[in-house]
Amino acid sequence: METNPISLTDKINKLGSDDCHNQVICEEKTFNGVEITKLSKSQMKKYQKMLRWQARKADKRAKEREKLRKRKIEAKINNISLGPSRKELKRKKMIDSNCKISVVIDLSFDDLMIPKDLAKLIKQVLRVYTENRRATNPMQLYVTNFNGKSKTEMEKHNGYENWDINFCEESYINIFPIENLIYLTSESDNIIEKLDHNKVYVIGGLVDHNAHKGLCYRKAVKEGIAHGQLPISNFFSIKYRKVFTINQE
Questions:
Q1: Using 50, 70 and 90 to split pLDDT, how confident is the model at 211?
Q2: What is the set of active-site residues?
Q3: Where does the SAM-dependent MTase TRM10-type domain lie (predicted)?
Q4: What gap in Å lies between CA 151 and CA 144, rounded to an integer?
Q5: How many CB atoms lie within 10 A of CB 81?
Q6: Are 110 and 148 in contact (CB under 8 A)?
């Protein structure tokens, strides 16, 4: 695999929060292709803003590492498992999992969401990925219609291309047999009591469901695929309309 050159972000992440600002100024000669000494007033403001952001990021990561260190010490004292290590996670692939249930996150609703909701959507996808990676038997996870605004938002997360997710630009209709697809939607009258390893469960990647009530259900009907809902109300006390989110636990 080709090795990428160390980026500004990588450099700052290796620095302590106290000296990252000075280190960057010394090492970086340009900003957006322009020499630092030749930056305009507005460009200099952006450059300084970027430096502050990188410093905050480095400080945040340092605090997270310290928090993790304390958790490990506490877990060792109390004989508590923290789950698989990073090395174990790298070795474990969902293709080798005993769980063959396929779950699709349908990202075909980009144009219906404002940037803030798109960011929330991608955070939900990240949460699903994290939980799936740490599962004893991870499910087969797909992200379809992966193009447009949601892909642009995802690209803010460096290295996502290497994640153990099947990213697909095309629709799930073109990937799986139509008879195997089941769209999960709270508007469906079909209650799914047991998951079938031969089926593919589709979740609509849509934040702010209240503004688009029934959209996923109508899409399933239009495409001629089966639909259903999980018995969420059997496990949660919900006093308002049920909405199935991507990272529903």
A1: confident
A2: 208
A3: 85-249
A4: 10
A5: 6
A6: yes
What the block records as the tokens of 138 is 């991870």
Task: Please state, as a whole number, how many other Cβ atoms lie within 10 Å of the Cβ of residue 53.
Answer: 12
- The mean predicted confidence, pLDDT, of the chain is 81
Q: Which residues contact 110 (CB under 8 A, 6 or more apart)?
A: 118, 148, 149, 150
Q: Distance (Å, rounded) from C-alpha 82 to C-alpha 75?
A: 7
Q: What is the pLDDT of residues 7-65, one digit of tens each?
A: 444 433 443 444 444 444 444 678 888 888 888 988 889 889 989 998 998 998 899 88
Scored b (16 or more CB within 10 A) or e, 131-155 reads: ebbeeeebbbbbbbbbeebbbebbe
Which element (helix H / strand E) includes 142? Answer: strand 140-144
Please state the φ and ψ torsions of residue 215, each to the nearest 5 degrees. Answer: -65, -45
pTM over 0.85? The answer is no
Question: φ and ψ at 203, to 5 degrees?
Answer: -115, 130
Residue 192 in contact with residue 233, Cβ under 8 Å?
no
Residues in CB range of 20: below 8 A, 6 or more apart: 12, 54, 55, 58
> Strands 34-35 and 30-31: what pairing?
antiparallel
Retrieve residue 113's tokens: 């969401």
SS3 content of the chain, % helix, strand, coil (to 5): 45, 10, 40
Residue type, 136: T
